[in-house]
Design brief:
Low-confidence stretches of chain B: none
Number of strands of chain A: 5
Largest sheet of chain B: 6 strands, mixed
Helix content of chain B: 25-40%
Order of helices and strands of chain A: HHHHHEEEHEEHHHHHHHH
CATH architecture of the domain at 218-366 and 383-483 in chain B: 3-Layer(aba) Sandwich
Structural class of chain A: mainly alpha
Largest interface: A-B, 50 and 36 residues
Strand order of the largest sheet of chain B: 3-2-1-6-16-17
Radius of gyration of chain B: 27 Å
Shape of chain A: globular
Oligomer: heterodimer
Shape of chain B: elongated
Helix content of chain A: 55-70%
Mean pLDDT of chain B: 90
CATH class of the domain at 218-366 and 383-483 in chain B: Alpha Beta
Distance between the termini of chain B: 100 Å
């Protein structure tokens, strides 16, 4: 565990303020850039929109000063920048598709963003200590798995872009997997912090690896079967990989045993291979991945690749490319859209922002003192990394294409709601982690890790 | 739990490294090949977004882009339509650029050529609208129109070149087509036109002057045989050679008769000049066998046969068969058997004789200019080879003058101007009328233009066709147009 520094910890809220203003400035600049290159004039709503964005982010910043003064100062500026750039790109695609600003996707995304920020604020307000969540470990399990199978229910499940990971409720569509990711992380953290000793201590040593006992394999088998069910029935490798990857990584963090990763990867590869042999839609995805230009199949990957190629090193400039030629340019393929207009340089910048976001989350996991917090923070942070890998890897042909969205950038309410809440949780955990010990409020488990618990080895 | 968290961050670093590599691979390594893919709409749209350069003849556009208000922004139009179809080619959103300068100089016209790199950079820096380069052709508008009119509704081709520079003055291939039917933005109409043109048995989209199936040159090739004989030093234009009504070919039962069913002179003998004048098959068949296959083939190669030329469109190389026995050599010496030529090649033979034996590289591009009229490229005349000595060229000129003055080519006479020429009547398939040929140059004492004309299947004269009657008047019209008559 990290040693607690003896000097008085600083809140770093002023650093956050400066970075936040910088983030807002970059977004406004991008917005102006689109206006100038598309119509040669400043966007008509520049002052209103700019002030609105500034007001929302400053309000959240003030809430942090008040309710989570020691929270990580980088998280908010990073997600504000990503969310804002996503808005600019969606607005830019609205223009290309001839959608008026009042009925465009950008306005809806802006509404969702405001709602997502509000919910994140609520989370921060009421969740004064992340350990409160541990009480709901098994509620989280039920809710999480429920959300996961929701798209399969007849009547409300929707198949979009070949994947059945959406539900429709009246005019709204929602990707429950996004929320399930967080809820399941809470469940895994609560569950693993209880059983970690049993899972990590017992076992046989084979070839230098300590392998777990047969009976301890239960949980990973359950997670594996679930992820395979998602792969086969929801037809989405991304969700499947995200779910299983999240579990295996948290299991590894909990037990510190590399054998779990080896077992997990073997299981997943075997399962995926069997699914490939058995199901036509999985095969189609793999073929599209191996040869995106082959005739008689979807050309969505090819279109995205050509968009990125058109961008080259420096990009065409915002508003000067043709990202609207790519399918799902504002959601699944928003990354190629940025690649086309901001170039390789722009994509590197975006990827670095995500790396920073994830690494700040992992830093929080290192800093926080309780096991539940460590597991939750590392799980949440790693899920963001995995999701980026699955989405970007899908459009750049590292892995087969999936139907997931890029956190904060892509168009989609559920994604925004879930990811802003995720960041709120990380902010809360980091606040607890960096707050001086004497200031930690009394929570349900005041001494941090529950050392008194008796571990049953059976 | 901290050490697995640290290792997890290493895993994250690896995942993102994979993404950095994959994006770099696509946007940097693969970018060019992805952009060059034929189905890449972005590249096409980008080309359409820029104003494409004009193709000009005598300062007037024969292909230009006009602004439209649809998605493609620029519509390619061809003010002269069919007249220049084989020169301009077509520029189609559906079928790309092809068929002529549009295809051969696409990079320059679209503005993506490496030659325009520095200009592009300066345009980006100064924020100027980028446009393609314009291409001025060497074509003489009057000669082109005269050739088109004279050839009329007959299938065939006409080529005229300036013998001293190699500039192509007229290039006509009939039937032609309207390139505007392929450049239209109405995709359905374009597809229909493309299918119709490709299904047409007369092949209107084939440029017969430089490509296509090539033609047997017929008697026009006797000039090459004569050149080889004179260059050997064993013959002069006054040498007396055998010219019977029928030449008995060795190693075979076949004979080689004269078209006019008689002998070429008293006692079955004739001079070289007279043999050319009356187009004596037997004399040139015999002469070819005397010269020998190697020297005959070498002489043909010196005139440019077998060269891969770009004018800038690719020219199909003309050919003399690699293996020739004696009877085949006799047939080849009068332009039959498997000798195959483009009309451009035949024009180059006349041009070389007109230019003291020097073959100039034929070319169509006079000048490449940017949108602000700055000259980017101006091709200079270039010597391709020395086909015959100046003396031989002078002798051949005198012989060809005799053809027009008193021989088979009298229909090409222009009053007050000496014309040199040679007719041809090429058998190409049993039961089909022969192709009618004429090649020559004028004025023969100070050549300004060399021409080659081929009229398929004798044109409107059919079986009556002889090069002299059908093709020579067309050549005459073109030469008159160039000379301002």
């Amino acid at each position: 565990m990290t040693t607690v520094s003896s000097v008085a910890p600083r809140t770093r809220r002023n650093v956050e303020l400066v970075l936040l203003l910088l983030a807002v400035a970059i977004v406004v600049l991008a917005y102006v850039n689109v206006g100038l290159s598309v119509s040669g004039a400043f966007p008509p709503g520049l002052v209103t929109h700019g002030t609105g964005l500034l007001a929302i982010s400053l309000a959240f910043h003030l809430l942090l000063r008040w309710k989570a003064a020691y929270a990580d100062p980088l998280l908010l500026p990073i997600v504000t920048l990503l969310n804002g750039l996503g808005l600019v790109m969606i607005h830019r695609l609205d223009i290309a598709e001839g959608r008026d600003i009042t009925e465009g996707l950008a306005l809806r995304q802006l509404t969702w963003s405001a709602l997502a920020v509000a919910i994140a604020a609520v989370v921060l307000w009421f969740l004064r200590d992340h350990r409160m969540l541990r009480r709901y470990t098994f509620t989280a399990a039920v809710v999480g798995f429920g959300l996961l199978i929701l798209p399969l229910l007849p009547g409300i499940g929707r198949t979009v872009n070949g994947s059945r990971i959406w539900i429709g409720l009246g005019p709204f569509t929602f990707q429950p997997g996004e929320v399930a990711k967080i809820v399941l992380a809470v469940f895994f953290a609560g569950y693993l912090v209880q059983t970690r000793d049993a899972l990590s201590l017992a076992g046989r040593k084979v070839l230098g690896f300590t392998f777990p006992r047969g009976r301890d394999l239960g949980p990973i088998i359950v997670a594996w079967v679930l992820s395979l069910l998602v792969l086969v029935f929801e037809k989405d490798l991304g969700s499947s990989l995200l779910l299983f990857g999240l579990f295996v990584s948290m299991l590894y963090v909990a037990t510190e045993r590399t054998s779990w990763i080896a077992i997990g990867m073997t299981l997943f590869c075997a399962g995926a291979y069997v699914a490939y042999l058995a199901f036509g839609h999985v095969q189609a995805r793999v073929h599209l991945w191996l040869d995106p230009f082959a005739p008689d199949q979807s050309d969505q990957v090819a279109k995205g690749l050509m968009g990125m190629a058109a961008g080259g090193l420096l990009g065409t400039g915002l508003g000067r490319g043709r990202p609207d030629l790519t399918y799902f340019a504002e959601s699944d393929f928003i990354f190629p859209s940025f690649g086309e207009e901001l170039g390789l340089v722009g994509l590197f910048a975006l990827l670095v922002l995500y790396v920073l976001l994830v690494e700040r989350g992992l830093r929080t996991a290192l800093g926080v003192r309780d096991g539940f917090g460590k597991l939750l923070a590392s799980g949440l942070a790693f899920s963001v990394a995995l999701q980026c890998f699955v989405v970007v890897g899908g459009v750049t042909r590292v892995i087969p294409l999936t139907g997931l969205t890029m956190p904060f950038l892509s168009y989609g309410g559920s994604s925004l709601l879930a990811n802003w809440s995720l960041v709120a949780l990380l902010l809360r955990i980091s606040d607890v982690a960096r707050r001086p010990v004497e200031e930690v409020r009394t929570g349900p488990s005041p001494s941090g890790e529950a050392k008194t618990e008796v571990v049953a080895i059976r | 739990m901290n050490s697995p968290i640290r290792r997890l961050s290493t895993v994250v670093a690896m995942l993102f490294t994979a993404l950095l590599i994959s994006t770099t691979y696509i946007q940097f390594v693969q970018a060019k090949s992805l952009q060059d893919r034929p189905e890449n709409r972005r590249t096409l749209l980008a080309n359409y977004a820029r104003e494409r350069g004009q193709i000009l003849v005598g300062g007037k556009p024969v292909a230009k882009s006009t602004a439209t208000d649809d998605e493609l922004k620029w519509l390619r139009t061809y003010p002269q339509g069919e007249l220049y179809s084989h020169l301009t080619g077509y520029y189609s959103f559906t079928y790309g650029a092809g068929g002529g300068i549009e295809g051969a100089e696409n990079d320059l016209l679209s503005g993506s050529s490496d030659k325009l790199f520095y200009r592009r950079v300066s345009d980006i820096l100064t924020g100027k609208e980028q446009t393609g380069a314009s291409i001025e052709l060497t074509i003489n508008a009057k000669a082109q129109a005269a050739a088109d009119k004279a050839l009329g509704n007959q299938r065939g081709a006409v080529v005229a070149i300036d013998p001293t520079t190699g500039e192509i003055l007229a290039l006509v291939s009939h039937p032609a087509y309207d390139p505007a039917s392929l450049s239209s933005h109405d995709t359905d109409k374009v597809v229909a036109a493309w299918k119709r043109l490709n299904a047409d048995s007369t092949q209107p989209m084939v440029d017969r002057a430089i490509a296509g199936n090539l033609y047997p040159p017929g008697s026009t090739f006797k000039v090459v045989t004569a050149a080889a004989a004179l260059e050997s030093g064993k013959y002069t234009e006054e040498s007396v050679i055998p010219g019977p009504a029928v030449l008995d070919l060795p190693q075979t039962d076949d004979d080689l008769p004269n078209d006019f069913r008689g002998s070429c002179g008293a006692n079955n003998k004739t001079t070289l000049t007279h043999a050319l004048e009356i187009s004596c098959n037997t004399a040139f068949g015999w002469l070819g066998m005397q010269v020998g296959a190697d020297d005959f083939r070498a002489q043909a190669a010196k005139f440019g046969m077998g060269d891969r030329l770009q004018i800038p469109m690719s020219v199909t190389p003309s050919s003399v068969p690699a293996e020739l026995d004696q009877p085949q050599l006799a047939q080849s010496a009068i332009g039959q058997y498997d000798v195959r030529v483009t009309p451009l090649q035949v024009a180059m033979i006349s041009a070389a004789i007109a230019n003291n034996g020097v073959v100039m590289r034929p070319h169509l591009v006079k000048k490449v200019t940017s949108s602000d009229l700055e000259v980017i490229d101006e091709p200079q005349p270039e010597q391709l080879s020395q086909a015959v000595s100046a003396d031989t060229a002078a002798a051949l000129t005198r012989m060809m003058e005799a053809v027009v003055k008193s021989g088979t080519g009298r229909a090409a006479q222009i009053s007050g101007i000496d014309v040199a020429g040679k007719t041809g009547t090429a058998q190409h398939a049993k039961g089909k009328p022969p192709h009618a040929w004429f090649t020559g140059f004028a004025p023969s004492n100070d050549p300004k233009v060399a021409v080659a004309v081929v009229v398929e299947d004798g044109g409107n004269a059919g079986n009556e066709a002889a090069g002299g009657r059908v093709a020579a008047p067309i050549a005459k019209a073109v030469m008159e147009a160039v000379l301002g008559r």
